[in-house]
Specification:
FAKD3 protein; FAST_Leu-rich; mitochondrion; mainly alpha; RNA binding; about 60% helix; five-stranded mixed beta sheet; about 550 residues; 26 helices; RAP
Length: about 550
């Protein structure tokens, strides 16, 4: 049977039983046909969990194929040799077996003699990488042979393989930035030809190789990834999201592609992929209601199968970005159920982050606070990195303040004062300098003297107020330094873009809880958001706006 007919018949078969039956009917096979048969067997018998039927390795036909490759390796064609090697690696044949040792040794000898074509080099490189313990010297040899050819003529497959090899050699301390610069430059010209898999692999390599200088290539790959979002596997999409995070990329068209893809795929996506999508949204401050609503529904149906880290990754962004989905009641009911079951399995810092995020959006974790405030738990927190640093203590303090102000019925243990901070550090939501200056200038115009308002005012309740104005009983403004006869306190919250979700008027959770707590503590909270003041062109208009916002009764 000629090779064309052989491969046509082989490709129509769907089980190893049918393949073995077909092979038994043949009197003679070339090594290319035999290696093709091994590849077909590996395709039908190997899935993500490994070899479906280990018993097939004892099949007589399979053993005869292996015998041919083991004892006639020097007579094999390059294609037959390397295709067989790839198939046997996929079938999880022991790398130390005489069969594999023979094939690897023959491959390396031909590499040393310069007998392998570019396609052969790719196949050998992929096989060595798959073994996960490759000799760095052999991989370097492959790259050196590749470089003897014009790098500009490399195919996408060759480019991807070299990136993968460079990841291994760099991990072993080898420096190859000159080659990387050339490779990055060539890859930039081929981006439009890359498949979803190749684009994902290259982005992952650029992250591992820390190619922060390859801005043009990274940007082009990220843009190219947009059209592939529906076609990425879970693993590929995770690689792409990690690249967006590592390189600081944020593209509206990519978010829109995720918004179309995630709701349709939420029930089939791997939880780790969903976690990475939520991490991306959270880090980039992207409140995407289609994504968050879908994830909330997905959590209700899949929470029992999630790890504790995945549970936290699904839920924390809701608090960070201050969003309650339409299914909030069922979402947090399910969360409470899984917390009761898995509470002891959570890492201490993960649990604090999770419960704190719930408090931000007024979902009070009352039943779990006795554990959080217990001396035993706090000792565990202190013993594990990052320990009881200022951020962790601030979260604990804010949880304690939340139950004090918003849950007066809470009768559990309190947070000891030694675990409380004196003021909440809020570096992410510090006032926008330019906006703050405009507001202070407007206030000075309105109130005539600087003594009538104070900025960055510390309170006894851990929060720092942007601007405070004091009034007496009749509503007259008092000097900011005056302590007596203060009847009302107005807290101006000068909210720049950094206190809102990206491209949104939705306050972040940290700022929302601060304003809520200030009101409960007796302050009259007046919000001065950037989007109301940015179009006001002069000081008089800003003063007029502030008059209307702060003293509406005397305006007009």
């Amino acid at each position: 049977m000629d090779e064309q007919l052989f491969f046509k018949k082989l490709n129509s078969l769907c089980t190893s039983k049918d393949i073995f039956c077909f092979l038994s009917s043949l009197e003679v096979m070339s090594d290319t046909m035999a290696s093709g048969a091994l590849q077909k067997i590996s395709e039908v018998e190997v899935d993500d969990d490994g070899l479906k039927n280990p018993g097939l390795l004892e099949n007589e036909v399979f053993r005869a194929l292996c015998f041919q490759f083991e004892f006639e390796s020097s007579k094999l064609s390059n294609t037959g040799l390397l295709n067989a090697l790839q198939a046997l690696i996929k079938l999880r044949i022991d790398p130390q077996s005489t069969l594999m040792t023979s094939l690897l040794s023959e491959s390396e000898e031909r590499l040393g003699r310069g007998q392998l074509t570019a396609e052969n080099l790719c196949a050998l490189g992929e096989s060595l990488l798959e073994l996960e313990g490759p000799s760095c010297a052999t991989l370097e040899q492959i790259v050196n042979h590749m470089q003897e050819r014009d790098i500009k003529s490399w195919s996408p497959r060759e480019i991807v393989m070299v990136y993968k090899i460079l990841q291994v050699t760099v991990r072993e301390g080898k420096q190859c930035q000159n080659l990387l610069n050339r490779l990055n430059s060539v890859t930039l010209r081929t981006v439009s030809q890359l498949s979803p898999n190749f684009a994902s692999v290259i982005l992952n390599s650029l992250v591992v190789l820390r190619q922060t200088g390859a801005v043009l290539l990274v940007t082009a790959l990220c843009k190219h990834s947009v059209k592939h979002v529906p076609y990425f596997t879970d693993h590929e999409l995770v690689n792409v999201l990690e690249a967006f995070l590592y390189f600081g990329q944020k593209m509206q068209i990519f978010t829109e592609a995720l918004e179309r893809h995630v709701p349709k795929s939420i029930h089939t996506m791997h939880p780790q992929t969903v976690s990475k999508v939520m991490q991306y949204c959270c880090k980039k401050m992207i409140l995407s209601k289609p994504i968050f609503d879908a994830v909330a529904e997905g959590f209700v149906s899949s929470a029992d199968r999630l790890t504790t880290d995945q549970i936290a990754a699904y839920i924390i962004p809701f608090g960070t970005l201050n969003y309650l989905p339409p299914s909030a009641s069922s979402l947090f009911r399910k969360l409470e159920t899984v917390l009761h079951i898995h509470l002891r399995h959570f890492q201490p810092h993960t649990l604090v982050n999770l419960l704190h995020s719930c408090a931000l959006i007024q979902r009070y974790p009352i039943n779990f606070l006795p554990k959080i405030f217990s001396p035993y738990f706090l000792q565990k927190l202190q013993a594990q990195p990052p320990g009881l640093n200022r951020v962790v203590m601030s979260q604990l303090t804010q949880l304690f303040l939340t139950v004090t102000l918003e849950c007066p019925f809470y009768e559990g243990p309190k947070l000891l004062s030694k675990y409380q901070v004196k003021a909440f550090p809020m570096p992410q939501s510090s006032p926008d300098v330019h906006l703050f200056k405009r507001v202070k200038t407007g206030l000075l115009y309105l109130l005539k003297k600087r003594i009538y308002f104070a900025s960055a005012v510390s309170t006894p309740y851990f929060y720092v107020i942007d601007i405070e104005i004091k009034l007496d009983e009749e509503g007259f403004v008092l000097p900011a330094a005056q302590l007596e006869e203060v009847h009302r306190r107005i807290a101006l919250c000068v909210d720049g873009q950094n206190r809102f979700c990206a491209h949104s008027h939705n306050l972040l959770g940290e700022e929302a809880i601060k304003q809520r707590h200030l009101q409960l503590l007796g302050y009259e909270v007046v919000q001065i958001p950037f989007f109301e003041i940015e179009s006001l062109q002069n000081t008089r208009k800003i003063a007029d706006y502030l008059h209307k916002k702060i003293f509406p009764c005397t305006y007009g």
